[in-house]
Amino acid sequence: MQGTKNLVSSQIKVILLGRQTWDLSRCSLQEFEPTGAPMWIFALVDFHWTVLHCFLDGPTLCVEHFDGLCQTPLSVFSSLLQLLRQAWNAQHVKVSSTWTFQQTRPDSCGTVALAHFAHHTGAITYEQAHLFEDLHDSLAVCSSMLPYKGPVGFGQEDEAIIQSLEQILPAKGVPEAEVRSR
Fold it and tell me: Is residue 17 within 8 Å of 131, Cβ to Cβ?
């Protein structure tokens, strides 16, 4: 990984925001504990992954929001920005939203967020990151093999299937609390 900046795991966070129908959004900021700057935050906002690069520039908290669709309103991050501002004793906040790599598929937001992260930390070149979305199918297969029991995919088609199953499975004896994870 040429040019990779030294990152420690405490500088990389994952948070959940928005109106997810499963109840993960309740705990998102309650469990979030900011560490020192700089910090990368992968944010799931209403079934869409984006990534934020947060750092201090003198007394200013700077946040670069990378969204492959440029569709996530910055207002959803207001609580998060307040937490960071207080934790880092920042006097000002500067936020920008952009993309370096545009998302071209309806379900590849997480892959595009990873491309932004990998490129901007120096782990991969611009050319590699530009082609990173081509890896989406392989990454999706790999993630489905993990023992993770939470929602995977988050696309509209996935949500429609889950809603249908929520109507069918409880009648077949599946506890309602387990329907979404199945």
Answer: no
Within the chain, where are the H helices? 78-87, 109-120, 126-130, 136-144, 156-168, 176-179
Instruction: Give the pairing of strands 12-17 and 39-45.
Output: parallel
The 12-17 sheet, strands edge to edge = 12-17, 39-45, 48-57, 60-66, 92-98
Place of tokens 């934020």: 52
**pTM here?**
0.67
Task: Determine the Cα–Cα distance for residues 124 and 114; give it in Å rounded to an integer.
Answer: 11
Amino acid at 37: A
- Note the pLDDT tens digit of each residue in 108-132: 888 899 999 999 988 899 999 988 8
